[in-house]
Amino acid sequence: MRGRLSGAGADSATRGSATLRDVAALAGVSASTVSSVVRGRGNVREETRQRVRDAIDELGYRPNLAARRLRSGRSHVMGLALPSVTVPYFREFADSVLREAQHHGMSVRITQTHGDVRRERGVCDDPYLRHVDGILLVPVALGKEDMRALAVTKPLVVATASVTAGRVDSSDTDLFEAARTVVAHLVAGGRRRIAALAPGEALPAESDERYLGYVAGLRDAGLPVSRRRVVSTETVTFAAGAEAVRTLVERAPETDAVFALGDALALGALRGLRDAGRSVPGDIAVVGFGNVAQAGYCAPTLSTVEWCACVMWPPPSVCPSRPCPTSSMPPGR
């Protein structure tokens, strides 16, 4: 049964000097249970976890991170490197990672690469991420050779590829299969000249599972992969999507569907197509990736694929309490 502190000890605890034992007393659990909840470990029922969290919030308990680091040899801080937090998809991606990390008792440090291949390659050397336990990198510019050249000095997860000891291993195929499914959906709807708007320099990064899934989907349907219908963007923004689709319409006017590898690009494409006098979905169907909140508030509403960052983060190598990831691809709109 949940206890309640009283007297001088309670007054002291509520002023922010609460101890782990104070939390245990208020939640009506053992100190070891509180420790398990704080660390995100152990087989603790969700109801009990919530009681402990409520007690922590009520008392303003803050773990002694320095002592915790000395005991475990870990900082319990994760690094997240992504292109920009101003882009809706990446902003919501970061929010998902923050929530998942918090669930496991960790903090997150975020750095922006702005899609610069040198910053993506050197993410393990970023001074801001020097003392983190591991890093999640969301690349838009890395190719296969860049992946091989990564100087891996700590646990690193690159989108859906897990990198350890200098080797890149595939850990999840959700992005690939999701993109492949998008193309199959468009083909089933009678679309045959399907274009892609993708981040990258000259062409989309060969390591981008979404692009590879797009190519596989076309080949599954016996359709050619036309370079004219692949438009690369330097950034993943509304403006980049609008500009890319204008280029596409001029270069490949026969296009009847657009798969944008990011909802910001897709939303920009909707505006660009409207400016070009093309109707959606009458003349050209548009599908995005990420299921950002804005997708349901534009006209027409954006068809998009939902994908959740929590399937990959935090990785088991830096969070022993986290089991190996499982596939998760909720249906898009």
Helix content: 25-40%
Number of domains: 3
Report the sheet-strand fraction: 5-15%
Gyration radius from CA atoms, angstroms: 23 Å
Q: Terminal Cα separation, in Å?
A: 44 Å
CATH topology label of the largest domain = Rossmann fold
CATH top level of the largest domain is Alpha Beta
CATH superfamily of the largest domain: Response regulator
Number of helices: 12
Structural notes for this entry:
- By secondary structure, the protein is of the alpha/beta class.
- The chain has 3 domains: 8-63, lambda repressor-like DNA-binding domains (434 Repressor (Amino-terminal Domain), Orthogonal Bundle), CATH 1.10.260; 70-172, Response regulator (Rossmann fold, 3-Layer(aba) Sandwich), CATH 3.40.50; 174-308, 3-Layer(aba) Sandwich (Rossmann fold).
- The protein is built from 12 helices and 11 strands.
- The protein has helices spanning 8-17, 20-27, 31-39, 46-59, 65-72, 88-103, 117-121, 144-149, 174-188, 209-220, 238-251, 263-275, and strands at residues 77-82, 107-112, 134-137, 156-158, 161-164, 167-170, 194-199, 230-233, 257-260, 285-289, 303-305.
- Strands 2-1-3-4-5-6 form a 6-stranded mixed β-sheet, covered by helices on one side.
- Helix 2 packs across helix 3, helix 9 packs parallel to helix 10 and helix 11 (238-251) crosses helix 12 (263-275).
- The chain is elongated, with a radius of gyration of 23 Å.
- The two termini are 44 Å apart.
- Residues 1-15, 161-173 and 316-333 have low confidence and may be disordered.
- This is LacI family transcriptional regulator.
- Pfam families: LacI, Peripla_BP_3.
- Residues 18-72 form the HTH lacI-type domain.
- GO terms for molecular function: DNA-binding transcription factor activity; transcription cis-regulatory region binding.
- Keywords: DNA-binding, Transcription, Transcription regulation.
